Amino acid sequence: MEFVVVTVGLIGGVLLLIVSLRARRSMLEGSDEEWRRQWQALAPERRKAIRRSLRRGEAMHDANDAELALRAVAQTEHVRRSMRPITIVAVPMLSIWLVAGVLADQLILVVGTALALALGVVLAPVSWFQTKRLRQSAEATRRLTENPRAGARP
Fold first, then answer.
1. How far is CA 131 from CA 38, 135, 138, in A?
2. Which of 45, 69, 72, 100 has minimal CB crowding within 10 Å?
3. How many structural domains does the chain have?
4. Residue 86 structural domain
């Protein structure tokens, strides 16, 4: 039985490594280096204010902030799309490792994979909510930049 557990572990590990390397390449290929340089050149207080507005789902009122925020949202979406294959492979692999650990009576394998799966279950709604807020902020910012009078402050 230990041979089966080791074999399943090795196959899963190699598969995750291959998928991770492809995801990394995908992230690097779609990276917006110009945006990254502009973002890093901003004062820390301004970056913090933009991130805060994005987290709250608010529109950017400054034209320069709006462009950077929209590009930040696009970068975040690109990274999420690039990471999706890892999730698609990791969840079934962790489930298989959990079953193999139970069958082989390997406590460390059971605990490790159960913790990893539980962490994924806990963080998935947080990620969903953050993505929803980022998209709300991007949409509000797009509406504001297309029709500046709509977001004019009294």
1. 23, 6, 11
2. 45
3. 1
4. 2-147
